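Z., the sequence and structure:
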Amino acid sequence: MKKSVLLFALVGMVLIVCSTSFAATTYVITNDDNCAAASNTSSIYTLNTSTGALKLTKTLQTGGLGNCGGFFAGVQASITQDTKCLYIADGGTSDIAAFKVPALTKVGNYSNAAVNGGFPGGSMALTPNGKFLYVSYGVTLNIGAWQRNADCSLTFVNAYTAKAGADTYSNLVVDPSGKGLIVSVTDIGALELFLINQTTGALTDLGFTNLNNLSSCASNGCFPTGIDITKGELAIVATADNNAITTQLSGKKPYFTKVTYVDLSSVPLINDETIWLSSAAYKTGTGPVYIGFSGDGLDPYCDDGFSVEFRNHGRTFDRDHHFTFPLHRAGRIYRKLDGGLRMVQPTADLQDQR
């Protein structure tokens, strides 16, 4: 298959934080993924939501090393919804650096022999209540479950391999209820669903849907990467080969229902790998959906104003941000329409502001 790995891809390593603990300021937090320096770093920027300007305010030393690249869809920085704990993945040293917020004091680095996050790395997702953190690991080809403690330290729960098979799980997301973990089984071409134990954080594998059972996927290839999900449990999945999948989650078997192939071949870009839902799309199931591509073209496309709500790995913040991306994120806007997606013609380019 076509491996959806992009060196120096930082899209999945940037998150937006709106926090009353940060004096009502909006911040951009990055995982810099340094592998050659003495330490990996996380850069903390303030974001002017009117102009899109970024101002570096602090650089955190993680004490570990990054991978200097990996999956375009991987999420490598995460903050709890109560904005008290920040976690940065160090793929090169296979640990998670934990920081207290808002002081941004380091708590420690957490690792376990059962998991190894070396290249191509993985992804992370917090439950909405911030009790549990789930991380995929690119070397051991498994998922690690961690429990967040009161001081932001982490306790390892267990490691898990999806029933669909050991794989580079390039992305994972917790559903809005906090009860399910959806995992991209990328190379095999499947989506896996785990049930989250609300007391311990342990995972129970409920099963998977094989995307290759769709005739279009069997002929064109569907390798799931980035995932986002609406409040109504409709998951939209980028599949790295100019197509996408939508599926409605159900509380009983079959857990993945209405699995639908979406053809994106009209887009003059390749390797769709990231999905972001707007506030409207998240809340109502209808509205702008933003798709990032990792190949063929550096000019992103979007509508005027580019109103996008950045959601912290399975849950949404309350306000939209109008700004120009600080990094190249090639893509076009799609809207959900009658269970599918249709393209909205771009009216304004995003410019690189690095």
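The helical segments are 215-220, 279-284. The domain at 5-349 is CATH 2.130.10.10 (Methylamine Dehydrogenase; Chain H).

Let me know what you think.
H.
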